[in-house]
Amino acid sequence: MFKHLSQGYFIFCCGMCFLVTLLPWWPTYEILTIPKYALLFGPRWWLLIAVIGLFFFWRYLSKAQLWFSSLLILLSLNFLDFQLPSPGSYFSTSTSDKISVLSANIGGGGSKRELDYIGFTRKPDIILLQEARNIALSTLFIDYDFKECISGLCIFSKYPFKRVKVLSRKLFEGWGTFAIFYQIETQFGQVSLANVHFETPRSVLMGLIYRFFDFTLANTIESNRQFEAELVSLWSKNKPYTLIVGDFNMPEDENTYQRNFTHLNNAIGIKGIGFNATKHTVWHGVRIDHILYSDDFKLKAVDVVEVINGDHQPVFATFSVGNTY
């Protein structure tokens, strides 16, 4: 009995590890939207617990299966978004010019004192906020001369900037702004920057919690998220010195992210160590806030700042930049 049970359990673990490892390449079939959201945004630790459970059956597994179980643990850690920095990230050449960027969604918390503390201790050159409604620009980050807020998307900069374009969800009969594009004049030249806040699948996830499966709603949200990502991706193509920063509401292993943003580097994905969830719930965390950058920048350091008493944590990155464009 235990022999048959162990073989079935082993096959189950192999199948689930294979399924989640392929998440970045899942097709965009409508029937897969809700399962995709459940796997991406739900607790991910269940897979590691399931794989560790294999070792309770070690007497009934072959040596090959035991060795393969070690690979399954690695795959489950990868699904958990456990990160080791890319070896190449430590061999970038240094230059004299640097630029630092901090991104924070403050919709779920983040007092003026906390935000000022981050600005004071980290001293970023550019601060980008999402869901920053009802804040007084004159009292926040007073050391920054250049600042503005539009529909909860804010920029505070030590460098002068020009707003190039604003993208609103009115494009698909929604509400709110999901991207603002800037040209920033730095001491080493012009930087193209986008502050983004893509649509959230929260309503679909709440439906899952209450066992209400609305595929029509899920696919409408999925279509909107894809449209937003595609527009921002098109803007960023073939642009030198480009940054896309903000709350993407999508993890790096989502197929929508993979189709639209892999031409840029993900700061935490390149140099992050350990678990770097930027959005927290009671049971788990997920990394959905990103700082993306073009190859013209050389990443010096990146960190998830665990300061704000909200459901998101800021991301802070420092880059070195060549002296010529």
Give a brief outline of the structure.
By secondary structure, this protein is an alpha+beta fold. The chain has helices at 2-21, 33-41, 45-52, 63-79, 112-122, 202-209, 215-236, 255-261, 267-271, and strands at 82-83, 97-105, 126-130, 146-150, 153-157, 161-168, 177-186, 189-197, 242-247, 265-266, 274-275, 279-280, 285-286, 289-293, 297-304, 315-321.
Report on this structure.
The protein is an alpha+beta fold and 325 residues long. The chain has two domains: 2-80, no CATH class; 87-321, Endonuclease/exonuclease/phosphatase (Deoxyribonuclease I, Chain A). The chain is 33% helix and 27% strand. The chain has nine helices and 16 strands. The strands form four sheets. The protein has a six-stranded mixed β-sheet with strand order 4-5-3-2-16-15. Strands 6-7-8-9-14-10 form a six-stranded mixed β-sheet. Strands 1-11 form a two-stranded antiparallel sheet. Helix 5 (112-122) links the parallel strand 2 and strand 3 (126-130).
